[in-house]
Amino acid sequence: MIAYKFLHEDGSTAFTSHRWSLPQDGGPGGWVDAPVDPCRSGVHACRPAHLPLWIGRTLYEIELEGEIAQERSKLVASRGRLLRRVDAWDAQARDAYTRACADHAHELARSVAPALDDWDAQVERLVGFGPALLGFMAARIAQKRDGPEGYTAERARQVDWLAERLRLPL
To answer: Strand locations in 20-132, DSSP E?
Structure first.
């Protein structure tokens, strides 16, 4: 199964600091094996529909094998290896995504009466924290405005932006 995984620039993970064998010379990285125990053990990855929830510095396409648990917002497999870096997810794309989320957060906050001024005032202050926080901020403003459906719709809008910009299948 093909999925996606965000890593730090050095190939390490955000939660365990495990350092992955990165793809080189057009070939995949080495296999990682671990028992499947979601949030504790296993090779964690995501489908394109969950990218905004896990967004990070570098994005890789990953091949998963063996036992694969399909959780609500992630996949956890007993085996995985990185196939390629998604080069389209670069500094320019991260900045563009952050700006798109900030602009949409402003639009959402200002589109109701009374406006969500307290929320809107925080958006620009948080832009420097990057795409994960601004994506979450836009989704929370949408939730404040439209309830749980608003949150879901905003995350779907973010998925569409990422899939189109990064040319990923949905």
So the answer is: 32-33, 43-45, 58-70, 75-85
Give the tens place of pLDDT for each residue, 95-142. 999 999 999 999 999 999 898 999 999 999 999 999 999 999 999 999
Pairing assessment for the beta strands 2-7 and 32-33 based on DSSP bridges? unpaired
Q: How far apart (Å, rounded) are the C-alpha atoms in residues 64 and 49?
A: 17
Taking Cα atoms as reference points, which of 153, 132, 129, 139 lies closest to residue 109? Answer: 139
Q: Check residue 138 and give left, alpha or beta (phi > 0: left; psi -120 to 50: alpha).
A: alpha
Contact 54, 6 (CB under 8 A): yes
| 80: nearest Cα among 29, 151, 6 | 29
Cα–Cα distances in Å, from 38 out to 5, 15, 56, 62, 80? Answer: 15, 13, 20, 17, 14
Instruction: Determine if the peptide bond prior to 114 is cis (ω within 30°).
Output: yes
What tens digit of pLDDT does each residue of 50-85 get?
A: 999 999 999 999 999 999 999 999 999 999 999 999
Please give the structure tokens belonging to residue 114: 């009374």
Domain boundaries, the chain: 2-85, 91-166
